[in-house]
Amino acid sequence: MLKLFNTLSRRLELFKPLKSKKVGIYSCGPTVYNYVHIGNLRAYVFTDLLKRYLHYRGFSIKHVMNITDVDDKTIRDSKKNNKSLNEFTDFYLKAFLKDLKSMNIKLPDIMPRATEHISEMVDLIEKLKKKGNAYRKNNSIYYKISKFKNYGALAQLSKQLLKKNASHRLSLKDEYEKDQANDFVLWKTWQPKDDNVYWDTRIGRGRPGWHIECSAMSMRYLGETFDIHCGGVDLIFPHHTNEIAQSEAATGKKFVKYWLHNAHLMVNGKRMAKSLGNFYTLRDIESRGFNPLLLRLILIKTHYRQILNFKLSDFKEAKSIAGKFINFLVNLEFIEKDFNNNINAEIKGIIKKYREKFIKNLDSDLNISLSLMSIYKFVNEINIRMDLLNVNNVKLIKKFINEIDQVLGFINPLYEEYLIELQNKINKFQIKKILMEREIARRKKDYKKADELRKEILSIGLIIEDTKHGYILKIK
Q1: CB-side neighbour CA atoms (13 Å) of 217
Q2: What are the CA-CA distances from residue 80 to residues 68, 70, 87, 194, 209 (Å)?
Q3: Which residues contact 428 (CB under 8 A, 6 or more apart)?
Q4: How far is C-alpha 32 from the chain's CA centre?
Q5: Based on the structure, what is the number of domains in the chain?
Q6: Does residue 273 lie in a domain region?
Q7: Which of 59, 155, 189, 270 could lock onto 206 through a cystine, CB 3.0 to 4.6 A?
Q8: Banded pLDDT at 430 (limits 50, 70, 90)
Q9: Do the domain assignments include residue 187?
Q10: Are residues 438 and 392 in the same domain?
Q11: Angstrom distance (rounded) from CA 251 to CA 219
Q12: What is the span of the domain harbouring residue 467?
């Protein structure tokens, strides 16, 4: 049975959704003022793995991920680039969606933009004001955290610690005046520096604060209480802490049942920063010749709650892992025997054994490391029986690989890319003609010519592996 680590309780909990077999998930999306970096991508890959596995286990998913397209940074940088807020944020939203596609990350069911949900935010702020949890000062509206009894429970922060932190991270998000240093802004009154970015509403002219966006949009599409909220550990405080405070104060109900957070990504043992020269977007990765799907593998193979120390050299290992799966599938393609034998029951038994291992490991808080290890062992077990397989066995094996890759999301896409590259080489260099000449030479026992033709194929970047049943053609 699936168990997940709930940040709120700090323990593994049996997963039981509010509605049987139906799961509502909200994850924090990007602020679209720049390209997302690989630390952001780790969070999106984690949520993708979670969604894929829940679906694999028979749950139906409704996934909502917000797009923050109005805040201090989007306003500042759109003005710098002499573009309207919408034009500016649209560019980076499209870039973000392209990144998701390149990484084979399934799109959320709903991607609400903050600018399109101002009315929901205004309604929520009015509820908080009416209940005494919000107040107006200098025309901006703030949340009064002293009115919320369990404030800081998610982050396990004491009120004293909150005061110590008030001048640091919390205040970075909320630059306007307030009654208490650790209160946070819900609605920012219009200022000249905002230019033409504002909304005229019942609570005044201005724009929403960061935290209110996620509460309003998540409850709009998932209800006042929903199953899972995802995000990076950096969002636990203040963002998710503030989401809980404003949502539960407004509704009087539990906001989220399970809070899941992925750990930080480091680069060469250091925090990622442009000043350190170790800041990478997907475009930086691709410009170095690395496949985005290999980045997916790198990000996915470390457990989501472990700090991931990323290095460019990781791509060598990832390529080796991918190559293991690709070679395995290539070898299966060249099995053409259709006779019956006594290995059918054995293959079915092996598949059953490793399916159970795969599920058991992922049921334990998505233990991807052990799950991948079990699949490596499965491949090894099949490889030692490769000469005994027939086409029926191959169908079962390929079906199982397809099944697990519905969760992993990198094996089949990489294999498809491999087959396209292989076919392009075959067509471009007329490989079939060379192979036919080589086969004629081998039949005539002209091994010198056959070897010369093999070397010619090798110079093109292809390898011929001769077997007792024929040959296998692979990319070098």
Answers
A1: 27
A2: 18, 15, 13, 12, 21
A3: none
A4: 17
A5: 3
A6: no
A7: 189
A8: confident
A9: yes
A10: no
A11: 10
A12: 429-475
Q: How many CB atoms lie within 10 A of CB 231?
A: 23
Residue type, 104: N
Tell me the average pLDDT across 434-460: 90
**Residues 413 and 434 placed together within one structural domain of the fold:** no
Shared domain for 470 and 351, answered yes or no, is no
Phi-psi region of 286 (alpha: psi -120 to 50; beta: other; left: phi over 0): alpha
Cα 442 to chain center, whole Å? 50
Q: Report d(CA 151, CA 146) in Å as an integer.
A: 8
Same domain? For 234 and 92 the reply is yes
Segment holding 426, helix H or strand E: helix 411-428
Whichever domain contains 44, its CATH number is 3.40.50.620
CA distance 381 to 224: 49
DSSP 8-state code for residue 434: H
Same domain, 97 and 142: yes
More confident residue, 335 or 2: 2
pTM of the model: 0.92
Taking only Cα atoms into account, the Rg of the chain, rounded to an integer number of angstroms, comes to 27
Judge if 258 and 310 occupy the same domain.
Answer: no
Q: 171 and 214 share a domain?
A: yes
Examine the domain organization and report whether 252 and 345 are in the same domain.
Answer: no
Q: Which residues, in sequence order, are CB contacts of 37 under 8 Å at separation 6+?
A: 272, 279, 280, 281
DSSP class of residue 193 equals G
Residue pair 186/143 in contact (Cβ under 8 Å)? The answer is yes
